[in-house]
Specification:
The complex is a heterotrimer of chains A (239), B (224) and C (215).
Chain A (H helix, E strand, L loop, with lengths): L7 E10 L2 E11 L4 E5 L6 H8 L7 E6 L2 E2 H11 E4 L11 H11 L6 H10 L15 H15 L3 E5 L7 H16 L3 E6 L11 E6 L2 E7 L5 H12 L3
Parallel strand pairs in A: 3-8, 3-9, 6-7, 7-8
Antiparallel strand pairs in A: 1-2, 1-4, 4-5, 9-10
Helix pairs in contact in A: 3-4, 3-5, 4-5
Chain B lengths: L1 H19 L3 H19 L3 H24 L11 H6 L6 H30 L7 H26 L5 H12 L1 H17 L6 H25 L3
Helix pairs in contact in B: 1-5, 2-3, 2-5, 3-5, 3-8, 5-6, 5-9, 6-7, 6-8, 6-9, 8-9
Chain C lengths: L1 H24 L13 H28 L2 H33 L7 H22 L3 H33 L14 H32 L3
The chains are: A alpha/beta (239), B mainly alpha (224), C mainly alpha (215).
Chain lengths: 239, 224, 215
């Protein structure tokens, strides 16, 4: 990857389902080591945008470049460099934590051995539950397991869909620390949320997505919480 | 790496199957039930049963196989795991291969069970035809699983999947049914494998074609 | 639209003339009588039905390779028209068969394969109808079309073998082994007319799909 090249780049992204336009001319970019938080109410198109970047949905129009690879040509290469924390956990309930990690690692062609798996679990404080079936995990534990997966993958680009949903204070803190660590290693992070409070700690920039368009984009440090809240309400009519 | 990924899929499915025990037992009970249905439909006339044996055996296998293969991607329904498979980089056909392997294993187990039931319930003398039957069964299972896994991937993403899956699968696997029934008929009559060799060749040829088509087209089903 | 109109007229004239020649002017069959004239309907429709699926096959391949939706539209249009011709084949075969050979249906290789082709057509169209995402529906049905088309010869082969195994006696053939020249001519005329009609209908359906999707 060339220096200065954006890790995530979207230009003029549009997505239509029949006559419904979900995304309209969306452009954004995230540099390596940078964190962009995308805010917006439900139905604004945040998840659709994320899924397009994750190569799960094809855009109707527009350009997407991830880690230097163009979506239309090299979706497969993009998948090697993107870690996606989706709404669904991608976990098999009847497998243990280690088995889930092993399956993911093999499927993604990661050269890991059992000690690496255990270390990844240890990093999220799940080593003690390594051989427990995921069905018995709490939501927080499943989220941690998903982060362990990301830890194994160490992707250049992280896409996160509501990573804080359903977590308690401790869980939130864990996620924030994880994300900061990823950023320090040079990963680009795009995080989607409709919660104004969390995650701003690791954000360098904030954008607001409303009705399929990017309404606002600012440097996080230029905004204090009240200003952000006011902007949000103005553009989305939400609180 | 390709084979390792295929194996990972196969192994994962086997683990889940063993642990959840969800429908696997149900399938065997269903096979059991079919025996009773056949008996009541055809009556106690032993000669009639013996004449219809090849057809009944493979019909029974087809019906249970239909139920079994329809579940190929059931494990991927929870937690959006199917999406997780889409995100895996590399050749998707490795996933297909793993699924087919799992399907073949399930089909073989069902065959053994059905054969056992037939032997017990109809007091049939199987010993001489057993090796031939095993070969026919294996060839039939491969073709069936090859097409079934492909269509299961399609119907897993569709709403009315229970109806669509048999509708898609049955017309296409007719040659397998014909081949298996005819080959079994030859085996039972002449007790020699060579009498059935044309049918075995048909089955093998069809298997090759189905498997190749599946390997080449699977990526289009598990794409964005 | 000019070509379309012209095509439509030519096809209509072709059909009209072909069918009237077939039902009015062609010689009466010595053995079967007037019922035999259904052949002028039955044979062209079976050929067209298979031709249509051949188009579905090639268009599906083209779609998967190129990802261009026009190939998918062609495949879908051809399938919708082809299923009708195939259905017509089965019905006309039954109408022909009952008075001629005393049976609505026969399990010979050709008819059985045609019936299975009909089912494969139906499953192709069902997949398209049951998947909401247009792009996915296109891909899924393309795969169904491809494997269906590849399977047709295998089906035909296996059914034929199966039948020679079980029924070495009378093989009912829905077509006379030798025909007089006028009959051959009439048949060819109708085949040509049907194919033209197929092209016309498919083209229309294709254009309709383009309009629907705002292309």
């Amino acid at each position: 990857m060339v220096n200065g090249q954006r890790a995530i780049e979207a230009q003029g992204l549009c997505k239509e389902y029949g006559s419904t336009r979900v995304l309209q001319d969306v452009s954004l970019s995230v540099a390596p080591g940078e964190g962009l938080v995308l805010l917006g109410p439900n139905g604004a198109g945040k998840t659709t945008l994320l899924k397009i970047l994750a190569t799960l949905i094809r855009p109707t129009a527009g350009l997407v470049r991830i880690a230097g690879y163009e979506l239309r040509r090299d979706a497969d290469a993009i998948r090697r460099h993107v870690g996606f924390l989706a709404h669904g956990s991608y976990l098999y309930e009847d497998l243990t934590a280690v088995e889930n990690l092993q399956f993911f690692a093999t499927l993604h062609g990661l050269a890991v051995r059992k000690p690496d798996l255990l270390r990844a679990l240890d990093d999220v404080d799940l080593e003690g539950d390594a051989d427990q079936r995921v069905r018995e995990f709490s939501l927080g534990m499943k989220r941690r397991l998903a982060f362990a997966r990301l830890g194994l993958q160490r992707p250049r680009v992280l896409l996160l869909d509501e990573p804080f949903a359903g977590l308690d204070q401790q869980g939130i803190k864990r996620v924030e620390d994880s994300l900061t660590a990823f950023k320090d290693e040079g990963a680009a992070i795009l995080m989607v949320t409709h919660n104004l409070g969390h995650g701003l700690a690791m954000a360098d920039r904030v954008a607001i997505l409303a009705a399929g368009r990017v309404a606002v984009e600012r440097n996080r440090h230029d905004l204090d919480p009240e200003a952000l809240s006011a902007l949000y309400t103005t553009h989305t009519g939400d609180r | 790496m390709y084979l390792r990924r295929a194996w990972a899929v196969f192994w994962k499915d086997s683990l889940i199957e063993r642990r959840s025990k969800e429908m696997a037992n149900g399938l065997f009970f269903f096979a059991f039930l079919l025996l009773f249905l056949f008996h009541f439909a055809l009556g106690p006339d032993r000669a009639r049963i013996e004449m219809a044996f090849p057809g009944l055996l493979w019909l029974g296998f087809l019906l249970t196989g239909l139920l079994g293969l329809g579940r190929t991607f059931l494990g991927e329904r929870e937690n959006d795991c199917l999406e997780g498979l889409v995100l895996a980089p590399g050749d998707k056909s490795a996933i297909y291969l793993g699924k087919v392997a799992g399907g073949v294993l399930l089909m073989l187990l069902l065959q053994v069970f059905l054969l056992l039931l037939f032997t017990v319930f109809y007091n049939l003398e199987m010993r001489k035809v057993l090796p031939g039957l095993a070969l026919v069964g294996a060839l039939g299972a491969i073709g069936f699983a090859a097409v079934g896994s492909l269509f299961a991937a399609i119907t897993a993403q569709v709403r009315a999947r229970e109806l669509l899956f048999p509708l898609l699968l049955l017309p296409v696997v007719i040659p397998l049914l014909l081949g298996a029934v005819a080959a079994t008929g030859e085996l039972v009559q002449s007790h020699s494998l060579s009498a059935a060799r044309h049918w075995l060749a048909l089955l093998a040829g069809a298997d090759l074609i189905y498997l190749t088509t599946g390997l080449l087209t699977f990526e289009f089903i598990l794409e964005a | 639209m000019k070509t379309g109109r012209l095509l439509g007229w030519v096809a209509a004239i072709g059909l009209l003339s072909g069918l009237s020649v077939g039902f009015l002017y062609a010689p009466r069959d010595a053995v079967q009588g007037n019922v035999q004239r259904i052949m002028y309907l039955h044979v062209p429709s079976v050929l067209t039905g298979y031709l249509a699926f051949g188009v579905v096959f090639l268009a599906s391949l083209a779609y998967l390779f190129s990802q261009r939706s026009r190939w998918d539209r062609l495949a879908a249009a051809s399938a919708e028209v082809g299923v009708v011709f195939t259905g017509l084949t089965l019905v006309s075969g039954a109408v022909w068969g009952k008075p001629t050979w005393g049976t609505w249906w026969t399990w010979d290789a050709r008819l059985t394969t045609t019936a299975l082709l009909f089912l494969i057509y139906v499953s192709y169209l069902l997949v398209r109808g049951m998947v909401e995402d247009r792009e996915r529906a296109a891909r899924f049905s393309a795969v169904v079309g491809i494997i269906g088309a590849i399977d047709i010869p295998i089906i035909h082969f296996s059914v034929q073998w199966f039948r020679t195994l079980h029924q070495p006696a009378t093989l009912l053939r829905p077509q006379a082994p030798t025909m007089d020249a006028p009959m051959v001519f009439t048949l060819l005329l109708n085949v040509g007319a049907f194919i033209l009609f197929y092209v016309y209908l498919t083209r229309m359906r294709f254009r309709l799909a383009e309009l629907e999707e705002g292309v």
